[in-house]
Amino acid sequence: MKFTSLAFYLAVCPPTLSAAQPDAAGPAIVANHRAIFSQPPARIPSNNSTDAPLLGNGDFLAAFGGPPEAPRFYLCKADLWDLRPNGSPRSLARLDLDFPDMKGAGYRVEQDLLHATTTGVFKKDGVTLTVESIIAATENTLFVTLSAQGGSVAGRANLRSPDDNGQATALIDNENPVTIGREMHGGGRYFFDGQIADVVIGNEVSPKPPTNRPMKPETFSATTARREMAAPKFDKTVGVGAWIKINQATAEANYIVSKGEWNQAYSLGLTGGCPRFAINGKFVQMDKPLEAGKWHYLVGIFDGRALRLFVNGALAVGDASVPADGIAVVQRSYEKGMIRPTGAACALSLPEKTGTFVVAPGKSVTLAITASGLANMKDYRADAAKRASMVTAGSIATSRRAHEVWWADFWSKSFVEIPDKALEQRYYLSHYAMGCASRLAHFPPALYGWTLSEQTPMWGGAYFNNYNFFAPFYGLYAANHIEQVMPCNDAVIDALELGRDVARDESKYESMCSNALLIKNAPGILLPVSILPYGIAGAPTTWGQRTNASYGCVPLASTWYATRDPGFAKRAYPFVREVATFWEHFLVLENGRYVDKNDASLENSGRDTNPIVAMAFIRMIMDLATDMSTTLGVDRDRHAKWRDIRDHLSDYPQCTVGDLPKGSRIALPDSPETRALPIFRYSETGNAWQNDNAVGIQHIYPGNGIGLGTRTDLLPRAKNQIAVMARWVDLNGCNSFYPAAVRVGHEPGEILKNLSHWVATSSTNGMRADNPHGMEQFSTVPNTLQEMLLQSYDGTLRFFPNWPKTLDARFGTLRATGAFLVSAELKGGAVNGLSIFSEKGVDLAVQNPWPGMKVRVTRNGNAAETTTGERFTLKTAAGEKLSLSPE
Asked: Residues with Cβ < 8 Å from 575, sequence gap 6 or more?
């Protein structure tokens, strides 16, 4: 079901009280944009960025790959992580579709951004196969609808573990006798320690425990006892069952049944107390050890395709298990040795209970893959399987309608419209990706968002605090997509106790940095370079950087100033206060200024003094702590110290181009004029420059240290910094370089030209093959365009502050500092249609969009007053709508 008119959209998405009104212009503009993939993606599966079409609802995610004869959906779950120090996100499953007759077919995949629908169209010899898919926005279900024209297409669906290469497991039996009580390597090893009873081996073994308890228990020592048992050879299927009682769950291995070494024929045993069933080296194994001193009934079953392991009649683990009801389930869990357990499962109701089907003209086939995780409910496997079994045509229609309503509401939050439709398309594509990737509380997207390989993601896929984690969210605040930001805020706030522990003894978390002066017994918080969900440490290093926790205040500050939500301030303030506390005690007061010593400006760059980004962040944090505590009515006694630090902090390190070390990368021609240009140094003493990142402008953005309304005395130097660095396409930091260029007034035509080149050389899905950081690319275009059209970072609204006056443009309900929703249009070089909705009743400061003219102010449709001046301030009331126009 697609929305056929904006009137229908407004009928199903009535105005809400949280905004001025949903704006129908957003969906209308997005309806013009598609993402077209003309060939199968090459970077899937991938342990870093991918070029595949992306789907998701912020919790359940998928990427679409494979050729026409073998389409593949790579599935992942936001809460499925290996949560131990230096752990990583893990992939969940893969849906394999096989259409042998479509080999060599033409390939086209189109993503409809308005409806968040991905459609593959494959044509061969007059037959067209269409594969339409969505991940429902309001439930964890992937719907795949298959239809055909011009002829029928036979297919098969398989739900597989991500490590399953699709090759069927083969049972190759041997002549060895079945040995009970040990594994038969050499003279024997891994003897069973405990009791075994009632061993059964056959083609058909029921997983249900016998009605009688163990009838003939045998005691086995951990070193000698064993016996042999006669059994026929099996060539296709086999089942092994037994009652067991182990003496301890910590033994290296306990073998119940084997036919040679563990990887020969079949075997059933335990490793570290965890049951394991193997067929010729392929095995399934539980993550949890069995309880010692208690009888358990274990059964391993191989049905010719899948291995399954049952404990006391319940399926414990299995790859693509296919029980009699035709529900395929893949489950993954990470519990043993974890600081916090995680687990997830997905399920598919197989067509015809076998997975085979025929797609005929006029007779479509819809597959529904349901998912659930420990973050959703305790018995996530049962939940996924139950929901898969309950899918009906009616429930599919209901889910699709809810999906399209959610996405229409998402697109109504704000809009941007510009003449360059390629940039406009990338603007909405980027927001689509963030809408797909981020919504689950406490589990923001990892470094690559989509975990698509069994191989550990590059850099562990963790949350990197020295900018990478926070960059994907830069464009969401102004776009009014605060819901997508909140998981990032959760992860920062969750790291509070970890930060305190690192500050108490950095040496416990530092094993890689060679230049840092390790901190001990410091108040406040210090964070390692990377973290995982729930405040678990990532990579064991701070790299000597004292700003890792300070970077975490960027999303907290951006959310607070955009919403002025006291409830959010209450949650975020403890983290902010502890960062401020750290700087209070770490900074050194020398000759009337506060100095940041022994702080690395870059990873492992040494004991630098006054790194340039730290200088901006410290000021930001002192203001943020003061503002939040004022709202909450706490810690007023600390304000004087915070203001003193802000006002007497060392200034940004400065130099000329000619002062830089030999070999420094400079984008301007080498000349006396260039060498004389005043610019910024990366630190006052120590590291001076870096040739391949954008750290040298992050004091401008996201540090908010210099702009059209802040430190205008440094604007010429800042403009030189942009021209000298010119990091328009760079491994690190394009997402901050472009908005920094906007903030300081760099020539807008050049910004747009470079941004268009950046888009043209990116993958169709918005990621880049030449950047190993995946998700961070999704903020570059939205944030740059939004900053060109509207700025408010310093509390003053500036309309089209760095946009070419010859290009018409408009925007609607962009969110500004002070909890304002702002709309305006630039047409024929003149600003009009300017309206502002005040959510919280904060005073409104405006840079006059009509210089030298008086401004008429209309409140809630009634003429109210006239004001004037280059910059003016208006009182507002919560829920009030103001319209401004030149008199």
From this structure: 492, 493, 495, 496, 499, 525, 549, 552, 553, 556
pLDDT of residue 336: 84
Tens of pLDDT along 568-612? 999 999 999 999 999 999 999 999 999 999 999 999 999 999 999
Q: Where are the beta strands (DSSP E) in 457-532?
A: 463-464, 530-532
Q: Are 105 and 122 in contact (CB under 8 A)?
A: yes
pTM for the whole thing?
Answer: 0.88
Distance CA 268, CA 435 (A): 45
Is residue 881 classed exposed, middle or buried when 0-12, 13-18 and 19+ CB atoms within 10 A define those classes? middle
Measured in whole angstroms, the distance separating CA 347 from the mean position of its chain's CA atoms is 23
Grouping H, G, I as helix, E, B as strand and the rest as coil, residue 568 is: helix
Beta strands in 274-326 (DSSP E): 274-279, 282-285, 296-302, 307-311, 314-318
**Count of alpha carbons within 13 angstroms of residue 745, beta-carbon side:** 14
Is residue 646 within a helix (H) or strand (E), and if so which, with residue range?
helix 639-648
Question: Which pLDDT score, from 0 to 100, does residue 671 have?
Answer: 97
Helix axes 421-437, 780-789, angle to 10 degrees: 120
pLDDT tens digit sequence for 395-422: 999 999 999 999 999 999 999 999 999 9
Rounded mean pLDDT, 230-250: 90
Distance CA 10, CA 469 (A): 36
pLDDT at 318: 67
Can you name the residues that pair with 609 across neighbouring β-strands? 685
Packed helices 496-504 and 566-586: angle between N→C axes, nearest 10 degrees: 10
Question: Which uninterrupted H or E stretch holds 158?
Answer: strand 153-160
